[in-house]
Amino acid sequence: MAEANKSLKKGDDVTWKSHGQTVHGEVEQKITKRTETAGRTVDASPDDPQYKVKSDKTGREAVHKPGALKKDG
């Protein structure tokens, strides 16, 4: 299933787990280099990308590896 998540793109609806709850949100950005975002340093690369997501409910941003995100629909 993780392979399918490599095709995530900006605007995709996704879910992820946070503090034991399922959070619904949207992909904001694919990160492919080391960068500072969502309040932390993200050590991403083209071979190991991460995704910045925004919660629909709270508006808070987070960064997750593709395996932690599940595309809705």
UniProtKB/TrEMBL annotation:
<feature type="compositionally biased region" description="Basic and acidic residues">
    <location>
        <begin position="49"/>
        <end position="73"/>
    </location>
</feature>
<feature type="compositionally biased region" description="Basic and acidic residues">
    <location>
        <begin position="25"/>
        <end position="37"/>
    </location>
</feature>
<dbReference type="Pfam" id="PF11160">
    <property type="entry name" value="Hva1_TUDOR"/>
</dbReference>
<feature type="region of interest" description="Disordered">
    <location>
        <begin position="1"/>
        <end position="73"/>
    </location>
</feature>
<feature type="domain" description="Hypervirulence associated protein TUDOR">
    <location>
        <begin position="11"/>
        <end position="69"/>
    </location>
</feature>
<protein>
    <recommendedName>
        <fullName>Hypervirulence associated protein TUDOR domain-containing protein</fullName>
    </recommendedName>
</protein>
<dbReference type="InterPro" id="IPR021331">
    <property type="entry name" value="Hva1_TUDOR"/>
</dbReference>
